[in-house]
Amino acid sequence: MAIERFTWPTQNGDAPDITYRVRTSQFGDGYKQESGDGPNNKVDSYPISYTGPKAKVLEIMAFFDRHAGAKAFLWTTPLGELGLFTCKKPVPTPMGGTAFKLTATFDRAFQP
């Protein structure tokens, strides 16, 4: 089965959260040694939002339901990097009439 791609236009939310996991060993003489924690030590997540008609928001929610927070999908970051991501907590909010605002956070995923 092919990996699906998230293609809906989004407004970027707050700044992304980018962290590098490192392991640190502190020695008694003050020397400290640090190294990356595994081959995929960059952890990043991106808050996004989409505002549009109820029908489109339902379409996006169906996409998230198919992935159920665990199955990764392809998405291009605001910096233009294509990667695998998951979305565990989408929030559709009524804006009045048939308009909805969908907010979510895309978390980096890795292939086994």
Count of helical stretches: 1
Contiguous uncertain segments of 5+ residues: none
Biggest sheet: strands, sense, closure?
A: 7 strands, antiparallel
Average pLDDT reading = 92
Q: How many domains make up the coordinates? A: 1
Shape summary: elongated
Q: Give the tally of β-strands.
A: 9
Structural class of the secondary structure composition? mainly beta
N-end to C-end Cα span: 16 Å
Proportion of beta-strand residues: over 45%
Percent of residues in helices: 10-25%
Order of helices and strands: EEEEEHEEEE
The radius of gyration over CA amounts to 18 Å
Key terms:
112 residues, mainly beta, seven-stranded antiparallel beta sheet, two-stranded antiparallel sheet, 9 strands, 12% helix, 48% strand, elongated
Give a structural overview.
This protein is mainly beta and 112 residues long. It has one domain (17-108). 12% of the residues lie in helices and 48% in strands. It is built from 1 helix and 9 strands; from the N terminus they run E-E-E-E-E-H-E-E-E-E. It has one helix spanning 54-67, and strands spanning 11-12, 17-20, 22-26, 32-36, 42-53, 73-76, 82-87, 91-96, 99-108. The strands form 2 sheets. Strands 1, 2, 5, 6, 7, 8 and 9 form a 7-stranded antiparallel β-sheet that branches. The longest helix is centred in the middle third of the chain and has 14 residues, at 54-67. It is elongated, with a radius of gyration of 18 Å. The two termini are 16 Å apart.
